[in-house]
Specification:
There is one protein chain. By secondary structure, the chain is an alpha/beta fold. Helix content is 52%, strand content 16%. It has helices at residues 8-25, 33-52, 56-63, 71-78, 120-125, 133-148, 166-170, 173-186, 201-208, 226-233, 240-247, 251-257, 275-293, 298-310, 312-317; strands spanning 79-84, 97-104, 107-114, 153-159, 191-200, 212-216, 220-222, 262-264. Strands 1, 2, 3, 4, 5, 6, 7 and 8 form an 8-stranded mixed β-sheet that branches. β2 (97-104) and β3 form a beta hairpin. The longest helix is centred in the first third of the chain and has 20 residues, at 33-52.
């Protein structure tokens, strides 16, 4: 387990329990199980206390935890017959975006998501989940396909934001994001989105302009990262904690503001502690959201989706 900075007391307790059990396994003749069990109990209570009231910055750290399940994990767990489709038919393929045809609960669908990668090699290959224009154009191509064949679209959002590199800007990054957002508003099929980690900037909105938007309990969704906000407002990235508070980027804040539709509970200690349970909870939420949209015609889906976002400011003010 990779421990976050605020989890260091927990790391100490769990480390001591592990040391005691290691001593027993070496046959040193010491009965340590009762002492180790007490440490386990103490660690469990501390874990519950730590996660009972996380502040926005700590939630940001949890949302970025490298051991949280990523898009590939969700696709492998929740979907069957996944067939990836590559390329935007204009420039190339973007490995930051996983997209393809699949079955969810045996129902054909299109699934699109940001993939960050799990280790150094895969993170570089997937550009840390930061998509380039061809990634968004690939998503547009698949959404068009979904609309043509009347397939629901499921998106899994986990990105610090769209890639800001020179090549991406030369190929029309902002235009591609805007077109993807526009396409979300145009398709006449159910579109549901889940923020599974970070939902950063327009790079997230391009996939989350959906009929239903859900967030995992400790995920974040914001127009800018806390560090970026702090750099702009205070010229000091170290003020990220204050920025995280001001941005109201937690699932709880965004539910209150009417930006998202539901919060998906995570296991105690976050999705990284029990990935299987977290992914199953996401699966149940997707199933429920699709059921809510079942039977609605194309015109109704498009109209209600547009109204949802047009009315968002009014809901936040009241």
């Amino acid at each position: 387990m990779n421990y976050l900075e605020f989890e260091k007391p927990l790391a100490d307790i769990e480390g001591k329990a592990a040391e005691l059990r290691a001593m027993a396994q070496k046959g040193e003749g010491v009965d340590v199980e009762s002492e180790a069990a007490q440490l386990d109990q103490k660690a469990g209570q501390l874990l519950r206390d730590l996660y009972a009231n996380l502040d926005p910055w700590r939630k940001t750290l949890v949302a970025r935890h490298p051991q949280r399940p990523h898009c590939r994990d969700y696709i492998e767990t929740l979907f069957t017959e996944y067939t990836p489709l590559a390329g935007d038919r204009a420039f190339g393929d973007d490995h930051a975006i996983m997209a393809g045809l699949a079955r969810f609960n045996d129902r054909p669908c299109v699934v699109i998501g940001h993939e960050k990668g799990h280790d150094t090699k895969s993170r570089i290959a997937h550009n840390f989940g930061m998509a380039r224009p061809e990634g968004y154009r690939k998503a547009i191509r698949l959404m068009d396909m979904a609309d043509r064949f009347r397939l629901p679209v499921i998106t899994l959002v986990d990105t610090p934001g769209a890639y800001p590199g020179k090549g991406a800007e030369e190929r029309g990054q902002s235009e591609a994001i805007a077109r993807a957002t526009e396409k979300c508003l145009q398709i006449g099929v159910p579109l549901v989105s889940v923020i599974i980690g970070e939902g950063g900037s327009g790079g997230a909105v391009a996939f989350a302009t959906a009929n239903r938007v859900a967030m995992l309990e400790h995920s974040i969704y914001s127009v800018i990262s806390p560090e970026g906000c702090a750099s702009i407002l205070w010229k000091d990235a170290e003020k990220m904690r204050e920025a995280a508070e001001a941005l109201r980027l937690t699932a709880q804040d965004l539910s209150q503001l009417g930006v998202i539709d539901r919060i998906i509970p995570e296991p105690v200690g976050g999705a990284q502690r029990d990935a299987r349970s977290a992914m199953e909870a996401v699966g149940r939420a997707i199933e429920d959201m699709l059921a809510e949209l079942s039977g609605k015609d194309a015109a109704t889906l498009i109209r209600t989706r547009r109204e949802k976002f047009l009315n968002m400011g009014d809901r936040a003010l009241h």
